[in-house]
């Protein structure tokens, strides 16, 4: 039996190249659940794995795709049986383990979660790791006291995958959302997701000499890091929290400890890759309930396996808006 997959290989000069190929099912990794993949999606990590690797891919040839949703075909795991609808995000699948850019995937059952009631496999991949991470960030902010009454919530990198879903979730929960973007072309898009105001990226892109500025934000979902995160920390209200989910602006943090000491600001690290099973279930249940599907539809860009090499390069350049949903069978 053969199936279609996006195969990334590396030549003798160390350059990677990706192409869609028909491969034998016997080449699948040795997991205990085989899934007929229906949809996958595109994240920044996927762009790295399709292209230069970013140190994430250890062995070639490789099948990227850190997310997928589909139907169980075979299982020796007691939790799953043929016909079950399942979702996978994280666990370094698509990095060190063959992932979802294929019509079949074979993984460990402990990495899967059941598809929540009310979601289709297409919905689940419109959400994907980006949306799952956004929900974890919102939950962490709530656990540290954030409510709509506290004031506006800032979302940096708002037009990206995490930012788009975070904006839609927060707006649906009656928060006032301030969306940071460097692209004027995304303003109407972000307003359609529920952003109450747009903050031009240049307004918060650089650090300032003052360690504290006016108390402005009751919470923040930050996908940028770097100088922007340092600047935002000095603008948080007393006791407010920032959920850090990404580093598109750099991994360094040129900040002082003053916001933490004088305003009690919290910096919350959000990891979605190794998140335990029970926490995953809670997040997916919240997504099914708190993310309006009509807004989710607005941010979907459909794609096929053949489209991924170009889209992978585009996402590394910051040129992908919203969520790419990959129909692996198209």
Strand content: 25-35%
**Distance separating the two termini:** 19 Å
Low-confidence spans: none
**Total DSSP helices:** 9
Structural class: alpha/beta
- Helix and strand run: EEEHEEEEHEHEHEEHEHEHHEHE
Alpha-carbon Rg, integer: 20 Å
Helix content: 25-40%
Largest sheet: 7 strands, mixed
DSSP, total strands: 15
Shape: globular
Mean pLDDT, nearest integer? 96
GO molecular function: acryloyl-CoA reductase (NADPH) activity
Pfam families: ADH_N, ADH_zinc_N
Protein name: Oxidoreductase
Descriptive tags:
9 helices; globular; 15 strands; 330 residues; 27% strand; 7-stranded mixed sheet; alpha/beta; 6-stranded parallel sheet
Kindly describe this structure.
This protein is of the alpha/beta class. It is 28% helix and 27% strand. The protein contains nine helices and 15 strands. It has helices at 44-50, 121-143, 161-172, 187-193, 226-233, 258-262, 277-290, 293-298, 308-316; strands at residues 2-10, 16-24, 33-41, 67-75, 85-89, 104-107, 112-114, 153-155, 177-181, 197-200, 217-222, 236-244, 266-269, 300-303, 323-327. The strands form three sheets. Strands 3, 4, 5, 6, 7, 14 and 15 form a seven-stranded mixed β-sheet that branches. Strands 10-9-8-11-12-13 form a six-stranded parallel β-sheet, with helices on both faces. Strands 1-2 form a two-stranded antiparallel ribbon. Strand 1 (2-10) and strand 2 form a beta hairpin. Helix 2 crosses helix 7. It is globular and about 65 Å long. The two termini are 19 Å apart. The mean pLDDT is 96. InterPro entries: Acrylyl-CoA_reductase_AcuI, ADH-like_C, ADH-like_N, ER, GroES-like_sf, NAD(P)-bd_dom_sf, Zn-ADH-like_protein. GO terms for molecular function: acryloyl-CoA reductase (NADPH) activity. It holds the Pfam family ADH_zinc_N. This is Oxidoreductase. Residues 14-326 form the Enoyl reductase (ER) domain.
């Amino acid at each position: 039996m053969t199936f279609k997959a996006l195969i990334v290989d590396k030549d003798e000069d160390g350059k990677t190249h990706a192409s869609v190929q028909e491969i034998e099912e016997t080449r699948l990794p040795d997991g205990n659940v085989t899934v007929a993949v229906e949809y996958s999606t595109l994240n920044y990590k996927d762009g790295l794995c399709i292209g230069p690797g970013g140190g994430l891919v250890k062995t070639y040839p490789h099948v990227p795709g850190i997310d997928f949703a589909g139907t169980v075909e075979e299982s020796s795991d007691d939790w799953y049986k043929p016909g079950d609808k399942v979702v996978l995000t994280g666990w370094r699948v698509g990095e060190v383990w063959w992932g979802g850019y294929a019509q079949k995937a074979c993984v460990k059952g402990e990495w899967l979660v059941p598809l929540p009631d009310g979601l289709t496999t297409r919905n689940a991949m419109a959400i994907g790791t980006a949306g799952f991470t956004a929900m974890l960030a919102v939950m962490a902010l709530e656990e540290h006291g954030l409510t709509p009454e506290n004031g506006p919530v800032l979302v940096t990198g708002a037009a990206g995958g995490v930012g788009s879903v975070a904006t839609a979730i927060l707006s649906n929960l009656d928060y006032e959302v301030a969306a940071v973007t460097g692209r004027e072309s995304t303003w109407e898009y972000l307003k359609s997701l529920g952003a109450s105001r747009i903050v031009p990226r240049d307004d918060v892109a650089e650090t300032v000499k003052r360690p504290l500025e006016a108390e402005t934000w009751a919470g923040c979902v930050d996908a940028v890091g770097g100088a922007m995160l340092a600047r935002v920390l000095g603008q948080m209200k007393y006791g407010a929290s920032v959920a850090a989910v990404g580093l598109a602006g750099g991994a360094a943090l040129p900040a002082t400890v003053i916001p933490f000491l004088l305003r009690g600001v919290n910096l919350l690290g959000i990891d979605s890759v190794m998140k335990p099973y029970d926490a995953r279930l809670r997040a997916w249940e919240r997504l099914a309930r708190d993310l309006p599907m009509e807004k989710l539809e607005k941010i979907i860009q459909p794609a096929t396996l053949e489209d991924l090499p170009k889209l992978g390069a585009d996402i590394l350049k910051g040129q992908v808006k919203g969520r790419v949903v990959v129909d692996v069978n198209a």
